[in-house]
Design brief:
The structure holds two protein chains of two kinds.
Chain A: H1 2-18, H2 28-44, E1 51-57, E2 81-83, E3 90-92, H3 96-99, E4 105-111, H4 118-127, H5 141-149, E5 159-162, E6 179-181, H6 197-218, H7 221-238, H8 252-258, H9 262-275, E7 280-285, H10 294-318, E8 325-330, E9 334-335, E10 350-351, E11 355-361, E12 368-370, E13 372-373, E14 380-382, H11 387-398, E15 405-407, E16 413-415
Parallel strand pairs in A: 1-7, 1-8, 4-12, 5-6, 5-7
Antiparallel strand pairs in A: 2-3, 4-11, 8-11, 9-10, 13-14, 15-16
Helix pairs in contact in A: 1-7, 6-7, 9-10
Chain B: H1 29-36, H2 63-80, H3 91-103, H4 109-117, H5 123-133, H6 135-149, H7 162-173, H8 178-186, E1 190-191, H9 199-203, H10 207-218, H11 238-245, E2 251-254, E3 266-269, H12 306-313, H13 321-334, H14 354-366, H15 371-380, H16 382-385, E4 407-408, H17 411-422, H18 433-436, H19 445-453, H20 468-476, H21 484-492, H22 497-509, H23 515-528, H24 531-543, H25 546-549, E5 550-551
Antiparallel strand pairs in B: 1-3, 2-3, 4-5
Helix pairs in contact in B: 2-14, 2-15, 3-5, 4-22, 5-15, 6-7, 8-12, 13-14, 13-15, 17-19, 21-24, 22-24, 23-24
Classes of the chains: A alpha/beta, B mainly alpha.
Chain lengths: ~425, ~550
Amino acid sequence: MFSQSLQEKSRRDFIKLSSAGVFGLSYSGWMNVLAARAAEKSGSTGKKAKACILLWMAGGPSHKDTFDLKPDSKGAGEFKPIDTSAEGIRISENLPLLAKQMHHGALIRSMSTGEGAHPRAAFNMHTGYREGQGGVAYPSIGSIVSHEIGKKDFTLPNYVSIGGRSYGSGFIGPKDQPLIVSDPSRGVEDLRSVVSGARFDNRVGLLEEMEKAFYHTYQADNINDHKTTYHRAVTMMQSKEAKAFDLSQESSSSKSAYGSGRFAEGCLMARRLVEVGIPFVEVTLGGWDTHQDNFARVKSLSAQVDKPMSALIADLQTRGLLDSTLVIWMGEFGRTPNINARGAKPGRDHYPRAWSLAMFGGGVKGGMVHGATDKEGASVSEGKVSCIDFMATVCELMGIDHTKENETPTKRPVRIVDKGAKAVKAIIA
Amino acid sequence: MIRPVVVTLLLMAGMGFLASQSSDFLVAQESKSEKKAPGSVDTDKESPKSALAETKPPKQMDAKAIAKLIDDDINAQLGQAKLTASPRSSDAEFMRRVSLDITGVIPTAERVVAFLSDSDPNKRSKLIDELLASSKYGHHLADIWGNLMYHVDSDNRFVTKEPLIKYLADSFNANKPWDRMVREILTADGEQEKKGEVTYFLANRGVDKITDSVGKLFLGVQIQCAQCHNHPFTHWKQTEYWGMAQFFYKVNAQVQRNAKTEVKPVVEEISRPQRKINPLPDSAKNVSPKFLGGGSPRLSSTKPYRPVLADWVCTPENPFFGKAIVNRVWAQYFGRGLVNPIDDLADENEPTHPALLKGLAKEFTSGGFDLKQLVRAITLSEAYQRTSIPTPENKSDNVLYSHAAIRVMTPEQLFDSLTSVIGTLGESGKLTGKMMGPARTPPNARDRFVAFFAGSEDPKATDYEAGIPQALRLMNNPRLSGSQNLLNSLARSAGEPRKVFEKLYLMTVSRKPNDGEITKLTEYMARAGDAKTAYGDILWVLLNSSEFVLNH
């Protein structure tokens, strides 16, 4: 309750300060102060990730065909495990480039969750709550990160979702909604003015005068809030940082390192966004719902992941950003250990009981595996990790107190992660 | 804190139980009330008459007397606080506000001009009557109640909303008495195709969801916390929650579950309570049906349960029912409830104006649950008609109604107002059954816009919540930020610029520009060189201004 009101107050203060020169850039001095303060704060809490890139594998990737192969099991499937740069860790032969980065990452092979239908499971894995639980609209992890560690006065949004709508900010409000980039090659929708730059400036100048007069008469907070939002949007349109959304700025060699296709472009854009200070970026790759034709499809999807994801990790490493950037690869659940008998091209069905996810960089202990499944990959035999445990782990890595409560508009306190969560300390460096 | 509750659904494909109910629910009595309304003109063109007559018509609500009741209470409190109220709104301010509030859209330029030049001293009350008689009144309320009764979540992927919207719009437009309407909703059964009101139970499947929702929407009581534990702040006990929940144990709401199998959506009450599907928590195992804070009726095992609940809810005697709706309508017109949060009428949560809430609820429930008459009373009050311009002295008051609250347009109001200026967005708003099904992206431009601009779960009417993506869309989307047709016709009209400025202001911010503004715009036009460019710029500025997006 208390923290909410403080935050509310500082938001209002900010609005007051910034309204002095609404559409000018006159508050950049203030921004520097805030940035310095933010740096101070994060410095005092120890080494924490400043950004998170969530590579969301929509549909639920088969754990037995990616990161938890069981060559001797009944439903082993077609793929062979290969060695990686981390001793003792073997992953699918379809991920050869990623295998070379494994020393930067940790696998959790003991995920066990409670939702087996796509939308409910995806909601659960994005928010840490079950959809509809207690009648609250829960914020997704991207919105939580935006809300908790995002810079309030940033020229860019603190949460960007590439290639999909993802999950929004729920009760914490639209300021932490994701900015959606549907096609990375086209950048942000509506970011460019439909009129020339000079004419746009004229329009904004006239708007500013109108706003000033209206506020002078009516003096309501929401007039200022409107002004501030427009200010941020206009600043973003004109900012250097917004170039981060423009992939044409990248050299052809870095483009070719990531490969082609939307997901690859999304990974490249994610690096650009993290570089300019956006704390949460989600990139979606769909198609993992392989009820049929599992093996050909997983092979092709793995290829779509392997090059861009390994390039992303390497690129972050080269730029000195990997330690402060957490990269997560996961979907909403795993897939059945047995191969179904559906049609000529068999597949695997939804399986939340035991599955795998991968985390790289960002304070993760490299080259390790947490947990294990039995010999069929059917149940967790060691180190079970629930949805909320995973959420708490992400929070811990990002320096967010997962026990903190935020209030819904009806003054109901809701913890960032529900009670009973235990962060997986073993993978935290 | 909150125990996850998994609600499984009973699917009974092929159960074709259809209660035959009279679809002729139109009410005779509200047509009369329209006629008797003081200062009203003939407004009941759109209210169809019905052969059904109430046996004992309740006494008519007197809108002027109720408006006085409102003002006496509010002025007394202002007096106690030694605050002076702001003066009456200007005609332009009033017209824009009351149009947005009653019909959900700004007035046309022509209508504003006619209103401003009208010298009839009763023009405000005539305008109120005109707006209440417009079918937009019901559609606006259907937007509001549709959002409350149907939540967009994955459980409702295959539940269509359109039949509910149609039911709501028709019922509100017919001014169906609120007690009758809620009874219809609470006891609805049959096929959704034939009866839109069953959508409420289709979209809130599971006894916990429907118990929470009925509590919040129709009783103004938040009992959802008591589902899992005794409520920490109020006297609601867990047994109270599950006592209420008992009334929904025989409801079977059947919906399509996936894209492949088509299922006809149906709501019915089946013969046995579904204990296995909706298990009771151990701490409430032996709870018998109980009205909230009231008695325990004996339910007949051979009869449906919900009518028994409706008999208790939809009465003047119910301690919550009248207050709950009066408080909601009040909040719609004033930006905050007499009790806040508006759905928390617990004894522990004091209203700001307790006597007023009680008085309004009494007038409403004893006067035939007449919603249009309640709106008429509210909008006729001085409190509602005050300007939103604060005085230096009352500036910080936002509780005592010393000046009108400035509210943010809902996404629906914004869309309808934008398109009323720039024309439709070139897409059909018609939904077909197939399109409404599994699609994740809303199928028409208005729904997409609303989804994109939708704020938090329970937005405060006065909070501007839109973020950068929304601002970018309004500024830079070629479809939203202007209209070539409009600009061409303005430029072609070859009127003097002053007239065009006036037109642009009237159609967007519902007022004429003042002299200072005209000077500024004239200068701007000189700099821009070309008239059409300047008009395009001015239209853009107006549509992106807070004066446009706020209801002031």
